[in-house]
Amino acid sequence: MPHAQDKKYATGLVWFRRDLRSFDHAALYHALKSCRQVHCVFVFDQDILAPLLAQGIEADRRVEFILACVAELDGALHKLGQQAGVAGGPTGLIVRHASAREAIPALAQELHAQAVFANHDYEPDSQTRDAMVRGALAHVGISFLTSKDQVIFERDELLTQQGRPYGVFTPYKNAWLRKLNAFYLKPYPVARYAASLASLPQPQPPLPSLQTLGFVPSNLSSLPVPTGASGGAQLWEAFFERIDRYQATRDFPAVKGPSYLSVHLRFGTVSIRQLAAGAHQLALQGFQGAAVWLSELVWRDFYFQILHHFPHVEHKAFKPEYDAIKWEHGAHAKALFAAWCEGRTGYPLVDAAMAQINQSGYMHNRLRMVAASFLIKDLGIDWRWGEMYFARHLIDFDLSANNGGWQWAASSGCDAQPYFRIFNPVSQSQKFDPEGKFIRRYLPQLAALPTAALHAPWTAAPEVLHAAGVRLGENYPRPIIAHDLAREATLLRYAVVKKTHTLPTSAKPASRQRKS
To answer: Which residue from 105, 210, 423, 470 has the fewest beta carbons nearer than 10 Å?
Structure first.
């Protein structure tokens, strides 16, 4: 442990963003090792929150989730300082509700910090913000030092033999696994250096409430979404016990198969190194479920590096020729899109999936693929419309993964399914919700239907519908489109890219999982 007099900086400031934990934290570790005293800050960024409020979004589960995580992080930093014997007052988290690009340089000067530490954020808007903060800090002689923390491998750490970024997943995964070793999974021992935490400046205002941020409560408190690092640890412990069943259960929305850690990965209340290390260890022992779940973490890294190397994917197709596709437009397209958003398509699995996201801010991964395929390839709607809807509603929304998933479904992304592979929403329902448990949970108006009729109610005999209290066109819609006809229309729609593919006589839908 370096002596205080050997440290490079007298005072440092750690800026927490999407890394809301006090352990195995790269920026916090480097600050504590480099500075004689370290302050910690989180900013409820008005540049992010104000546009939500301007759109009339007053109840946002993500804001509520972050607020709970920030409160827990404040307590964790307080406890860390206590255990390290920090004198002079309690340690904890400075919290601001302001524009981060202005608040961080101002706070750094107020605290007489010589350096601000943060972890890398790869999204284009975040990089623009960080560049402005870096410039403002440099103007007053303060360093801005950032570290890799939310991925195992980033940016240029994995390149092809030609020195180019990977655009196909399997070679990337192979390179990822070859390079992986104990060094990349080693946790940062934050607690060892916690004596350098600084006491909170006094007086310190209380943490903001949801109301002072301008929001009202959502239904988050009624959902099974544990918050903070303690919530992430709880979910990881539970999943670790059943991880070997992941491969067999992950595709069935009525079964407890996924890890449900995606929101914790998004906001950094878990350590990616801890998760990858645990899964990798089991995979080496031959646990196939752990190996498959580890692949999902590799997909996560893959999409981050795609966004870094090909930032145009935020708004355009990864494969430029796919931007020539003519999507449905006008009032007809808006009506189709509204039916999809509101779960009124007449296809029960799609409608149940949309009910799940609308009610909970979460959608099972298999259903993300089914719902996306239906919007794009049954309804002919631009994938960007669906991407934006998910971005608004998913509590675990992550730009790189969401964009990668939607472009995969649209066949426009890197290593995406071929355009001629189109999910059949009825056969997907029969295969992955065979007893209809998921559909009955989210579409109670169909609950009394026999399972044989549940997946495609419009094919049921009138007396079967009557006995179940189902009135098509009244309490449940008729299909807004015929899948077989939609499939033919999609093949014609994608004709502009046919020259790059060979259309087979028979093709099975791809099965690719994109989230944990």
So the answer is: 210
353 φ/ψ angles, rounded to the nearest 5 degrees: -60, -45
Contacts of residue 398, defined as CB under 8 A and 6 or more positions apart, other chains included, come to 262, 265, 266
Question: Does residue 393 contact residue 438 with C-beta atoms inside 8 Å?
Answer: no
| Tokens of residue 129, six digits | 């913000």
Q: Are 185 and 77 in contact (CB under 8 A)?
A: no
Residue 438 CB partners (closer than 8 Å, separation 6+): 253, 254, 349, 352, 364
| Residues of the chain below pLDDT 70 | 1-5, 499-516
Cβ 271 vs Cβ 22: under 8 Å: no
Query: Peptide bond before 226: cis, by omega within 30 degrees of 0?
Result: no
Residue type at 49 in one-letter notation:
L
* Residue 425 to residue 370: CA distance in whole angstroms: 7
Q: Which residue's entry shows tokens 């406890």?
A: 79
How far is it, in rounded angstroms, from Cα 155 to Cα 308?
6
Spatial distance between the Cα atoms of 279 and 150, rounded to a whole number of angstroms: 16
The rounded distance, in Å, linking the Cα atoms of 311 and 329 is 26
The pLDDT score that the predictor gives to residue 5 is 67
pLDDT for res 505: 33
End-to-end CA distance of the chain: 37
Q: Which residues pair with 118 in a beta bridge?
A: 146
User: Long-range contacts of range 485-489, CB-CB < 8 Å, 24 or more positions apart?
Assistant: 486/377, 486/378, 486/379, 486/380, 487/377, 487/378, 487/422, 489/380
Among 481, 34, 24, which Cα is nearest to 273's?
24
Backbone φ/ψ region at 119: left (φ over 0), alpha (ψ -120 to 50), beta? beta
Helix (H, G, I), strand (E, B) or coil at 41: strand
Q: Compute the Cα dihedral for 127, 130, 135, 136 and give only its sign.
A: positive
Beta strands in 80-139 (DSSP E): 94-98, 115-119
> What does the block give as tokens for 372?
């996306």
> What pLDDT is attached to residue 506?
33
Which residues does the annotation mark as catalytic? 296, 299, 327, 365, 383, 406
Report pTM. 0.94
- Give the Cα separation of 348 and 374 in Å (integer): 12
What domains sit in the chain, N to C, each tagged with a CATH number?
A: 4-149 (3.40.50.620), 150-188+229-309 (1.25.40.80), 320-500 (1.10.579.10)
Residue 416: its pLDDT value, please?
Answer: 73
Distance CA 445, CA 277 (A): 45
Structure tokens at 282: 């089991």
Q: How far apart are CA 421 and CA 491, in angstroms?
A: 10
Residue 320, token pair as written in the block: 């430029």
- Among residues 286, 292, 186, which one has the least CA distance to residue 239? 292
Rounded Cα distance between 109 and 115, Å, is 10
C-alpha 80: how far from chain center: 29
Rounded alpha-carbon distances, angstroms, from residue 314 to 168, 207, 242: 18, 34, 35
What are the pLDDT digits (tens) for 223-255? 999 999 999 999 999 999 999 999 999 999 999
User: Which DSSP category does 206 fall into?
Assistant: P
